[in-house]
What does this fold into?
Amino acid sequence: MILLNQSKLSRCQMLAATIRLSDAIHTFCHVQVLSSQFCIQSVTESDFPMSHVLNIAIIGAGLAGISAARSLASAGHAVTLFDKSRGSGGRLSSKRTDFGNFDMGAQYFTARDHGFRQELKGWLDAGYVEEWTPRVYQYDQSGLRRSTDDQQRFVGYPRMSAWSRALLEGLELISSTRIEKLQPQADGQWLLVDDQNQEYGAFDRVIVATPAPQAAPLLEPASQLAHAARQVEMLPGWTLALSFSEPLDTQVEACFVREGPLDWISRNSSKPGREQADTWVLQSTPGWAQMNLETDKADVSQGLLSAFAEVLGMDLPPAQFSHLHRWLYARPGQQCEWGALAAPELGLYACGDWCLGGRVENAWLSGQQAAKTLMSKH
Ligand SMILES: Cc1cc2nc3c(=O)[nH]c(=O)nc-3n(C[C@H](O)[C@H](O)[C@H](O)COP(=O)(O)OP(=O)(O)OC[C@H]3O[C@@H](n4cnc5c(N)ncnc54)[C@H](O)[C@@H]3O)c2cc1C
It folds into this structure.
């Protein structure tokens, strides 16, 4: 059993997590959370004096991958991020249009962990992030009413993806590159092979920071890690972005929906920096998305629009802009508390929201945990 540094954890005034090497197989590092609250600190060079610089590949430039990359790079390691998309940020994606910036993935984030709140201060000061204080409603069988929810919410400024892009500054990212295979070398290093058969590397360590179903095949060389990833189901979702030429006559700026196809509604234009037109983002429930995964897009849009009109209790004018997006892997279906996964003997690690719970903050913390575990094994 490896105990995290006690004095540091008590400084965080939170209960600790222990990292337990899974007894039977030494290749599987399992983070066991002993309390619902735990502290993962940002890792600095002084925490782990370096014996030599490692060449590290991170597959996935979502928040988890970026979080790990920043820790490792600030400790002096050579880090290269890979992402299959043209851009970065993964599910922190935003769509830029003539009608404004729409957040198509994460709508906002919360900050409960002490270490994460410390980071947040820096992001707020730098202007990448702002607080969002919408009028929050809820809708269920009893109808629409004001929510008592007083959660503090934060958003990337002036769009979600601007935050992840700012965090990537100074890091090396190879985009539009889908990594398909990790090839172990005789000397313990790794080659990465993409879907065009192009090779990258060699790397001393690899962190896989993709959603679980995409991580499982990459983690195959560490069968315990692949097995863990295969256990995690990721649920789908449909997102519809809308813009109206005249503001809709409603006080609603955010709404948790507990009835029908919708899960969440946000008045996108009520977020700071997105005030160009009256813009909205609707998100379906995972169950409705599952039933309509292959439904014609026009029918999906119509289904979500009808549900929206029902929640607001009004006839909607025609939208001047609409854009529909399908997420195959929107959120993990279960709440795991692994933190991150590791096969240190192989130099393979995995992180992502699926290792800690499907939220932005957890993706960040999972990346921190992967970096910390990697450096502690160095
Ligand atoms: C519609 C929606 C709404 C949400 N709303 C909220 C919210 O309001 N609040 C909140 O806290 N959370 C929300 N979430 C969840 C939040 O977005 C995620 O928890 C978080 O962004 C996950 O970050 P990640 O780095 O783990 O994964 P991702 O952001 O998915 O990043 C993984 C990256 O890996 C890349 N990738 C995958 N396979 C490969 C490969 N083979 N080779 C190279 N690259 C690859 C992908 O392109 C992606 O960029 C929402 C998610 C969705 C989809």
